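Worked example 2:
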Amino acid sequence: MIKEKGNSTFFTSWSGGKDSCLAHYRAQQNGLKPQALLTMMIENGERSRSHGLSLEFLSLQAKSIGLPLIVQGASWETYEQVFSSVLCNMESQGIVNGVFGDIDLEQHREWVERVSRQAGIQPLFPLWREEKARGQTQARARIKIIQDFLDCGFQAMIIAVKDGVLTSDFLGRILDDQLVNELKKMGVDPAGEEGEFHTVAIDGPIFNFPLNLKVKERMLMDGYWFLDLAPW
């Protein structure tokens, strides 16, 4: 159950990928009212810090979802300070809940809770620790979240892979049952929760139109192969 603070307004901490997408959808299904998507960017504001997505692509996602996109650039050194400032601004505008797509990494949840509550924001974790609620192992719970994502009608594409874990051939592949089984056989977490790969959501029930994209180039940055995407 999602327990919101005060009113039912919320923003989503938006990576553009499957987890933030499903968390956003579940919050809506629980009756909460989305107000904005929040994405932290690199210092120059041109790409997201988590998935390396361009501002152009993120803006297209937000347009399809029908919500304003709030972006803020920061270095890793200034990240917490800048993030906290953005959350304080959210709270001052009456947006009192923040939705996060964390699944089971305790250290990151603790950071989110600390920074959010200092800013007066109630953090919500719609995907958190489903193995405890359903009596499943961690691995099975992660796969169940992916299956829920697909069963809801969402579609996602692999946008980044960790060099040395997956080859760049996986870039651009659509996440589906076949790919999930392939990753399992390779010993790779199909949820990518340890950073093995990242995805972008391109269609589904929160989108008003599917995202038709073209690949501009493949890039190797900070130990990851990325696809640079642009609207078709």
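The domain at 9-231 is CATH 3.40.50.620 (Rossmann fold). The mean pLDDT is 91.
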